[in-house]
Amino acid sequence: MAVLGPPHPGQARAAQLIREHLAERDTPPPQAARIQERYSLRCAPHVIGVLMDALPFCKQVLETEINGASDNPLIDPDSGDVLHGGNFYGGHVALVADTLKTAVANVADLLDRQLILMNAPETNHGLPENLVAVQGRERFAHHGFKAMEITASSLTAEALKLCMPASVFSRSTEGHNQDKVSMGTLAVLDLLQIVELTETVAAVHAMAAAQAMELRGLAHTSAPLRAVHATIREHAAFMVEDRPLDAEIVRVAERLRAGL
Question: Is the pTM for the entire model greater than 0.85?
Fold first, then answer.
């Protein structure tokens, strides 16, 4: 009997990437305290998969739009006919932008939730609270990644706020001649801002994960994750005592944007 895989290729690819990066562990993972992990871990491939599945569709729609004629009127050089139409309407571009807005922002929300799990002693399987590396009584004078968690939460909230579909806010202008417009420009501007916010959240998440890996011990991680850790460490150092991290967040975000 044939075994059917997940029907969504993006979800399957996301799961495959996670599996590959968690493979080849030198030591067994910590014993889980729960029968089932929280959704931000258990459903990570499903959240990321939505974005990965949306991208090919959006690419096809944009390529069709780019290769279309949007002049008005169109002139038929053979017949001389002047054809008045509305192919300038940017509804498909607005659809792509509004679709990607929610898919990208949901990834930011996922990373924000995972960061909370890494910081909290109740969910991080023995790591210090807020990933503080300082030992002894002095540890109470340091916040570790608490401020980073607040930063990620704030940026995520801003991204989620921008997810309202711009295409439904059509306005009538030019004496009701342009009485139904796509609002595609606003949708694209929202999308650009959401992508930039999510990249910053991803940088914060990556820095926290690198901190957690070192606190746990790199022997507990797979070879692929150690390679990712090394790349992050080229742009952000391990945090012992509290220090400003804004410049390091920018550097890590730029590296993520370029591709790990």
Answer: yes
